[in-house]
Specification:
Number of strands of chain A: 29
Number of strands of chain B: 4
Shape of chain B: elongated
Helix content of chain B: 10-25%
Structural class of chain A: alpha/beta
Radius of gyration of chain A: 26 Å
Structural class of chain B: alpha+beta
Oligomer: heterodimer
Strand content of chain B: 25-35%
Mean pLDDT of chain A: 95
Distance between the termini of chain A: 63 Å
Distance between the termini of chain B: 41 Å
Number of helices of chain B: 2
Low-confidence stretches of chain B: 89-94
Radius of gyration of chain B: 16 Å
Helix content of chain A: 25-40%
Number of helices of chain A: 26
Chain lengths: 802, 94
């Protein structure tokens, strides 16, 4: 057969086969498609791992031969993705093999990075810290594994008595955290991805799951393609790929989501379609008499009703631009308790100067309407990073937090942590450290002007590209002579290239790991291949610095009995020098750290199973409790029959209630305009975000040829009418300017995203086109999370100075 | 000559026969062949001379009101030598 015809026949066969298969594997299927295993051959050894990329936490089967990852397939036994992956997931193996992996520690001398030994590198970091321990900060990541984050947490808070540790998850999930904590008394979703299999209606609040959580999107779209009636309501500030699949699209003006949710609740009360029983039995009311406040003050339903009085559909339409007919229709849907409604959100609510309020409101809306606590019926925030939940939130690598949901300001919590860590009382500092924006501000400010952070260690993240207003928060630090930046990473990112000391790191299956996804699912993998050159595990780097500090005499590196903070023994009780990389893999350091960390998980009923349980499971959702000799996970928290900690007869029990009465809090929150809005000088909204093909700052995905070829550079999405008015053609390079910076980008009209008139969108994955030089560093007063979704910008053609 | 196996998902209420009829009249979709219809979707092949014409067929399909989505389930470019030029990877200077 002629080759051309053979290829066409193969293509048609594949397409026809795809028609007849369900998208998702069935329970009981082999982890790996037998056809793939056969085609790969006997020399390929397969192992399980969660995907390196997003918070969905898909499981993949990784095929290894000759010390290299050679194949990736979806893991058909994984409950999250059932064998399906997205385009990034299918290429995740290639993330390890970009041509410019960092392989040697490098020190900047006379403006150039020169190779040095690991011993010298570790010594440099330790000595910088010894010189000024209080001036040291550690900036970590929601892409840290749990053991990595735990080691960093223990070093800082347990060893150095220093709370200046914060993760990049401050930039993505912090408002979700404050929303959950102030509503339920404890962080993280009460529900899980099973909601997607049961919901009648899925409401998307400012997120674009078709691109950002594509496997989850496929889960409910697959139900539709099999004939189930699943309605999709897309509520956003621009049309996206998700909108194409929606039954209804509500377009709102930036920030007015606050008014929208108040308006919906207004309608529920007006029409008496709210769930009186749920509210009376399980809810309390709270307000903020003195401005934004995590604690607030108690109030009552009468005050709540009075508060909502002003959010009439007419008023909400005026604020938001959403026609009142659409609002009424959505309110009617929420008022129908026969429907199962799941709300999903991500950065639209979180990257918001009133992100805590937005989160509180969506929880309140669901509780008021009684759409809570049943499969398919409830609010669920989606996580961006693979372990923002597992590490940043659960291990507590935030400047105010301790592991297990404890906080540094609480004396009892500090004592509990000191107890587990065997530290003298008073070791842990009660004063919260600097959150991300403040940390980088201090690092980028001269010492004589209050810039009291002089050494900053970055692990597993790229702040030179991802911080807002990088001209303010990052760039100045590179010109200040007494500021020392240490960066542990895998590729020469914008941050790495600016570093004073570069530490090459192992990534993903080049090391053991444990992470926690968006639905409280803790997942584990074993190292499968070696990292290149002298790249080493981030966790080892932290332990090595800790040991060097101890050698230099820092007392904080010893516990009460004088043992090293990271003392590890083998099965025979013999101490293993894990700070010496030659011995790091003599034992499973991950297991050792995890088992110690696990002791924290009981405090807030976030129980974790023993490490060994995760080595065979495709993750387990906490709380995981031992029942009848096996470890049982929890799908839904606070619901009797699902959550083992709910007392019998209670139905729903918010056992961490901040009002100490087993009730969750419905907050009175007002619409507040954003700190910067378009005006005569900067007449457009600027929104930033991601695209399907690229993961965050593109440091991995831009090195994967098919993904880079799919979306090779950043662009600005413009409304066609706006472009026409300005004389801008599709593809023409234009200049964007805010009060903070400017950038040149090609315009894309009628692309995959379609902003309304007066709005622009730019993805942030392209390190050659740093849109965060233009964004605003303003943040939510409670979560300290910046707002990347709205600031004022102008756009002009090159050569046009009007 | 890039080749793609595709699955065209139709919007509910639209039938395969009508799509075939409309596509056969559409000269902009040269290189597209349709295959079997099943449960609201049609298998197809795009066999194009080059990437611009391959991508033009995809865009034209996706823009159709009767098409909900087009998924690529197979792609071969083994005998393609002309690829769109990528922007140079020059580092950003601060």
């Amino acid at each position: 057969m002629e080759r051309r015809n053979f290829l066409k026949l193969s293509a048609l066969t594949a397409a026809t086969s795809a028609l007849s298969q369900d998208a998702l594997a069935k329970p009981g299927d082999d982890a790996l498609d037998p056809a793939i295993r056969e085609r790969a051959g006997a020399k390929v050894v397969w192992g399980k791992a969660p995907c390196r990329f997003c918070g969905t936490g898909c499981h993949v089967q990784v095929g290894v031969t000759g010390g290299r990852v050679v194949a990736i397939a979806g893991d058909r036994q994984a409950a999250v993705n059932r064998g399906l992956l997205c385009v990034k997931g299918y290429h995740v193996g290639l993330a390890l093999y970009g041509g410019d992996r960092l392989t040697t520690p490098m020190l900047k001398r006379d403006g150039k990075h020169v190779p040095i030994s690991w011993d010298e590198a570790i010594d440099i970091v330790a000595k910088r810290i010894m010189k000024n321990p209080a001036g040291f900060a550690l900036y970590g990541s929601g892409q840290w594994t749990i053991p990595e984050g735990y080691a960093a947490q223990k070093l800082m808070k347990g060893g150095l008595s220093n709370n200046h540790i914060d993760p990049n998850a401050r930039l993505c999930m912090a408002s979700a955290v404050t929303g959950y904590v102030s509503t339920y008394g404890v962080d993280e979703p009460a529900s899980c991805f099973d909601d997607l299999d049961h919901a009648d209606v899925i409401v998307l609040w400012g997120n674009n799951p078709a691109e950002m959580h594509p496997v989850l999107f496929s889960r409910f779209m697959d139900r539709r393609s099999r004939g189930e009636q699943v309605k999709l309501i897309d509520i956003g500030t621009r049309r996206t790929r998700t909108t194409a699949f929606a039954d209804a699209y509500l377009e709102f003006k930036p920030q007015s989501d606050l008014a929208l949710m108040n308006g919906l609740m207004h309608c529920l009360l007006r029409d008496e379609t709210y769930d009186k029983e749920f509210v009376e039995k399980f809810c309390a009311f709270r307000y903020e008499p003195n401005g934004p406040d995590m604690v607030g003050a108690a109030t009552d339903f009468k005050a709540f009703r009075a508060h909502l009085g002003k959010y009439t559909p007419e008023r909400v339409e005026e604020i938001s631009g959403v026609p009142k007919a659409q609002l009424e229709q959505l309110a009617k849907m929420f008022g129908d308790r026969k429907l199962r409604i799941t709300s999903l959100w991500c950065m639209g609510f979180n990257q918001h100067t009133r992100g805590t309020a937005a989160n509180r409101l969506v929880h309140g809306l669901h509780m008021l309407s009684g759409h809570w606590g049943k499969p398919g019926d409830g609010p669920q925030s989606l996580t961006g990073q693979p372990s923002a939940c597992g590490t940043a939130r659960e291990v507590g690598t935030l400047s105010h937090a301790l592991p297990g949901g404890l906080v540094v300001t609480n004396e009892k919590h500090r004592h509990q942590a000191e107890g587990i860590w065997n530290l003298p009382e008073g070791r842990i500092n009660p004063k919260p450290g600097y959150h991300t924006v403040e940390m980088w501000k201090r690092f980028s400010t001269p010492k004589e002007s209050g810039g009291d952070i002089d050494t900053l260690w970055v692990q597993v993240t790229n702040p030179a590209q991802s911080l807002p207003n990088t001209h303010l928060l990052f760039d100045p630090s590179r010109k200040l002579p007494d500021k020392f930046l240490v960066v542990s990473d895998v590729y020469p990112t914008a941050t790495v290239r600016s570093a004073d000391l570069i530490l090459p790191s192992a990534m993903w299956v080049e090391k053991n790991g444990v992470v926690g996804n968006s639905e409280r699912r803790t997942q584990q993998w074993f190292k499968m291949v070696n990292p290149p050159g002298q790249a080493r595990d981030d966790c080892w780097q932290t332990l090595a610095v800790a040991h060097r500090l101890m050698e230099l005499g820092h007392e904080g590196m010893r516990d009460k009995e004088g043992k090293f903070l990271f003392h590890v023994e083998d099965a025979k009780g013999k101490a293993v020098p894990v700070w010496d990389f030659a011995h790091y893999y003599d034992v499973n350091v991950d297991e050792h750290l995890f088992e110690e960390y696990r002791r924290f998980s009981r405090f807030k009923h976030k129980d974790l199973a023993p490490y060994r349980e995760y080595t065979t499971a495709r993750g387990l959702r906490w709380p995981v409790v031992e029942q009848g000799g096996s470890w049982k996970e929890t799908r839904y928290r606070f619901v009797e029959g699902e959550d083992p900690y709910v007392q019998k007869g209670k139905g729903v029990q918010f056992y961490h209630s901040t009002s100490d009465n087993d009730r969750a809090q419905i907050w009175l929150q007002d619409y507040v305009p954003p700190p910067e809005s378009p005006d005569a000088e900067f007449p457009f909204w600027l929104c930033t975000g991601r695209v399907l093909e690229h993961w965050h700052t593109g440091s991995m995905t831009m090195r994967i040829a098919p993904l880079r070829r799919a979306v090779p550079q950043a662009y600005v999405e413009m409304n066609r009418d706006d472009a026409r008015a300005l004389g801008i053609a599709d593809g023409e390079v234009v200049i964007l300017e805010t009060r903070r910076g400017s950038i040149e980008l090609p315009a894309w009209l009628d692309g995959r995203g379609r902003p309304p008139k007066g709005s622009l969108f730019v993805p942030f994955f392209d390190e050659r086109l740093l849109i965060n030089e233009l964004t605003l560093e303003s943040y939510d007063p409670l979560s300290k999370q910046p707002d990347y979704k709205k600031c004022a910008v102008r756009v002009r053609r090159r050569g046009d100075h009007s | 000559m890039p080749t793609s196996g595709i699955v065209i998902r139709l919007r509910s209420g639209h039938g395969a026969a009508a799509l075939r009829a409309r596509l056969s009249e559409h000269s902009g979709l040269a290189g597209l062949e349709l295959g079997e219809y099943r449960s609201g979707a049609i298998a197809g092949v795009i066999d194009a001379e080059d990437y611009p014409s391959h991508d033009a067929v995809l865009s034209a399909l996706r823009d159709r009101a009767d098409v909900c989505a087009v998924d690529i389930v197979f792609h071969d470019f083994s005998d393609t030598s002309e690829f769109p030029k990528l922007p140079a990877r020059r580092p950003h200077t601060r």
